[in-house]
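The instructor's notes for this session suggest beginning with a concrete chain rather than abstract definitions. Hand out the sequence below and ask the class to guess, before any prediction is shown, which regions might be ordered.
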Amino acid sequence: MAWTSDSKSAMYYQGQGGASSRSNSSNPKAPGSTEVAEPVANFLKWLYHFIEKNEIYHVETMYEDGFYKISEFYYKDRPWPSPEEVQSIVEEKDAGSIFMILYRELYYRHIYAKLKPTLNHRFESFSNYCELFSYLLGADEPVQIELPNKWLWDIIDEFVYQFQSFQQFRSKGTKMSEEEKGMLQDEENSWKVTAVLNILMQLTEKSNINDQLRALEAGEPITEEVAGEFGIKPVYSMTGFFSLVGLLRLYCLLGDYHMALSCIKHVSFKDKDMMALVPACQITANYYAGFAYFMIRKYANTIQLYQHILGYMQRTKQFFQNRSFQAEDINKKNDQMLALLAIANTFCPLRLDESVNIQIKEKQGEKVNRLQHDRDMTVYDDLFFSGCPKFLSPVVSENPTPFGTSGPRGLQLQVFKAEVEQQRLIPTLRSFLKLYTSIPISKLAKFLDMNENEVRCCLMAFKHKKEIARGDNVDQTTLDIDFYVDKDMIHISDTKIARHYGDYYVQQVLKLKESNKLILGSALTRPGPQPAV
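After discussion, reveal the predicted structure:
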């Protein structure tokens, strides 16, 4: 048989629409059957062939399109065929071959996504990840395999997600059966935080990815001298890069924000760099980096990152909507970032893009009004819980802590609430200072119903918070007010930035074009006058 690209495409999609969907009622291999449907078997055989032959273009097409279509059609509420069945279908003799390792990764990932994994599934999946990473890290010379960037990112992303899921499962000790507790004791080395961190760090070191990123920062080419024998290969360099983002995410979940940011200190967040190769990676990295800056109180950096990525998500919204398996996660990240951005802009008022402002008003408009006008402190808790990730504890303690009722999330909330308390008077103080070019401290003390020493403390706190909020590499002129105290007089410098009318004008032009398309579309579909009989 000739292996033409047309015959390949036809074969591994055969049966998903057309004939198979018309004959489901009489086909014993249709969805719901325990047997493997013929189109699924064909898909697996072709995937096996393409991986063995390193035909990355076809592997990418089958992974990004075929796998999810088949999952939705045949395995929406049940697992894919067992690895033993697949080994028989593709006639692979070695259960430890790279194809079988990759298939098991897809198999367990599907169970996590569509079903409820058992404790055995969790242990087996971890063992399979160890086997996969040992295949990459334990080789004496670079492995001869190529995988799509999207698949490499999904492997790292799912690895961190499954660790997070396991830790959350383990923290609910009172709800576990005795059998499950015994299994956890027997497999105490599975999904340990040190093991997960160690694997991700080894992947970054194997690829020399930090040296490569430093070279890119300096405008130098990536050569084998810089990247090393392994790092020059795409499968290692991209896995190493994605592992940096995985470490960023993991450290944020553990509450170590400075360590999280140190992992990506050489990473560029520009649209044309490595991160942009996989949109899901770009969104994840921006979310967790922005959250880390948020928790160390560099709000200007958070605003800068979130404005950029929210604009990108708005422009590429149609791309993700066409992929239903991604749309839900992307929409959730969008809502989380809007909630955090609403808080950050309250603490550090900056001019936001018109499109981002519109999104905040649509999603969080009522809560933002309560923050600005009613000074309702409970809204901060709501927005924080809406925007923060699901935190983890590096250890599972049998003795409850003072925050045991809420776990790590409650602890992080207490840290955040301490900051809110410190910021409580600053919005009021800012609003008074913006009315004057100079004002005596005694007069301001009367307005605030405080004594002069308390006002001086508030002014020092305001100055301190403002300097921290500026962040790194952020335009210093974007902050809305500055002042200094000379003896008993406060002198205020208004640095308000004029509104960029060009942005607003472009926004309205785009809206007009969309309106014209709708009007023209309705005019074309409207039936014309009928001829007289």
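Then share the key points. The chain has 25 helices and three strands. Confidence is low (pLDDT under 50) at residues 1-11, 13-33, 400-405.
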